[in-house]
Give the backbone structure.
Amino acid sequence: MRRQILLDTGPLVALLDRRDRFHEWAKRELAETAPPLLTCEAVLAEACFLLSNIHQGRETVLALVQSERLQVPFRLGDEALSVGSLLVRYQSVPISLADACLVRMTEQYPQSQALTLDSDFRIYRRNRNPMLPVIMPES
């Protein structure tokens, strides 16, 4: 089982939306992952917005946090300077606040992997050098 997985918005939405084209992929990947998954509040905000039309979507996101299967150790207030630097560095990509927070989390959790659908994670770098370890669909 994989541990210390950083969860991005895409797989979280895909898991909870059976109509999402990555739903089965997300189920398989998360079945191979030991809880808790780690994320940030920006990911949760994006996911809740995207799941607003899915029955119990937002409530399920919050239930995952409440059950501690999904934990939010990241504090933007403590990391605003670092996240701000990432927003500037990758503004041409462009990078979202959620992505910048997850990139910063990969620096804080060096053994982590980001579970994502976002190919931009192949562009982002940890501490300016190494590629981020990611888990994403092949195509």
